[in-house]
Amino acid sequence: MALKIRLARGGSKKRPFYRIVVADSRMPRDGRFIEKVGIYNPLLAKDSEDRVKMDVERIQHWIAQGAQTTDRVSRFLEAAGVVEKKERSNPKKGTPGKAAQERAEAKAAKAAEGAESADAE
């Protein structure tokens, strides 16, 4: 059985509330789970103590049993100092979008055209 430590959504429409659960990876996101090991309330301020609450001992137990954490849960654990921080790389994040690249090319072409006309005089 492949275990995952992941978020299960609760709360009403536009008022999300998440449980941090240990579940079989084949189960639906909000479906059956094995154990609830914490909560996450994204509506609270980022510096609030009640935003993320985890039972760190149980999480470490499940990780020792072979459970894999999702990216969001692993970020919570990194912030709590439970696991070492992973190096993440998203090289496309800093590149401008298609429209911005086209605008930059048009601006560069216009500047080059203006420089050529100034050189001709």
Automatic annotation (TrEMBL):
Name under which the protein is recorded: Small ribosomal subunit protein bS16
Chain residue ranges for the region called Disordered: 84-121
Domain of life (superkingdom): Bacteria
One matching Pfam family: Ribosomal_S16
Keywords, ordered alphabetically: Ribonucleoprotein, Ribosomal protein
InterPro entries in the cross-refs: Ribosomal_bS16, Ribosomal_bS16_dom_sf
Bias-annotated ranges (Basic and acidic residues): 100-110
GO cellular component, one term: ribosome
UniProt key word Glycosyltransferase: no
TM regions (residue ranges): none
Membership in a protein family: Belongs to the bacterial ribosomal protein bS16 family.
